[in-house]
Amino acid sequence: MTILFVLLSIALLVLLIVWAKLNPFLAFLIASIVAGFLLGLPIDQIAGSVQKGMGNLLGDLVVVIVMGAMLGKLVAESGAAQRIAGFLMGLFGEKKITWAMSLTGLIVGIPLFYNVGFVLLVPLAFTVAYQYRLSAVYVGIPLLAALSVTHGFLPPHPSPAALVAQFEANMGLTLFYGLLITLPTVAIAGPLFATRLKKIESKPLETFQAEALPESDLPGIANSLITALLPVFLLISTTIISFWLPETHSLSQLFKFLGDPGVVMLISVLYATYSLGIRRRTSMKRLMESYTQATKDIAMILLIVAGAGALKQIFTDSGVSQEIAEGLQSWSVHPLILAWTITAIIRVCVGSATVAGLTTAGIIAPIIHTMNVDPNLLVLAIGAGSLMFSHFNDAGFWMYKEFFNLSIKDTIKTWSLMETLVAVIGLFGVLLLDLFI
pTM for this one? Predict the structure, then answer.
């Protein structure tokens, strides 16, 4: 009966978002309260559990997500993303243009949130397609595959960062393992898949053509790359150094401090403020206005994350997590495949990758110690599942359709299939890493 109540709570969440069109944050709150009643939590404890769950999860994440938004905003507005794209396209040439677009999406997608990266880079892809007289779909899909993978797999993006916090994983290791899986996933779902899309006609609307900054106003390529990739370098390098240094070493605690995700993002934003802002004579007032706008852009993401934390806490406080753990122990399915499957089903039903990942985390996080699985790989398995088969209930599906001016049929043949490839190949990559870790 307990498992049935959990399923009813999740079904309610799905219905509120898909059928009632309710804001996901409100849906999470309602589903959490209903779950508390169904699971027999004392009525005077339900509100406290909701508040505790929201506070615990946001306390770990708010700095990472907000600082990531600020960094991404500055990389976009300063022209650093445009500089990186232009450099890579010039480096690869026309014959390998799809590989250049994938690498652009991968590098720029790390600091940029998905929607920002989409709006910023897709018009550049249209410009490239027009210049070389190529199909916009053929040029654009490799770019979008890279943006999707970074959104689903790599911190400091909201969903993987939240999963790291919930599973008590290591953000540096998750990022390192994520990059190992990201490269082949992007290659297959991007440039290799795109070779089958050359004949799909697309006539992007003129409204979505890129408004490029003048070349003289762009930052240098070295400055752009270093600033955009600084969080990756700091997270991975401090993680590696921390593994090499013994606990008793005098510098051990220093590198642990420097490797904290919040500290890494703060250092990166401060550096970007100088390298892409003050150094290029942008006023501090303008920079701070940009940062303020960035926080407004991700306010709802923070609330959705908080709502997911509330649902997780209800499951924990009601004791249902233990029953789920005992039930899962009797299953012969690999924990990573199970987590991927649950996430993929929720993703297809709800449409939101972030909601799918965080809902699955709410179920699994309290019982991870019973699953005998690397938490870093669990983050990546859920991240892969959260990208499964984007269709009519996903805003990304409609953004792609409208920007590329495609039919529903061609949108499914290109976008939906690409997202499915990312999800399936990502799972295989996680399972492969699990053999060696």
Answer: 0.78
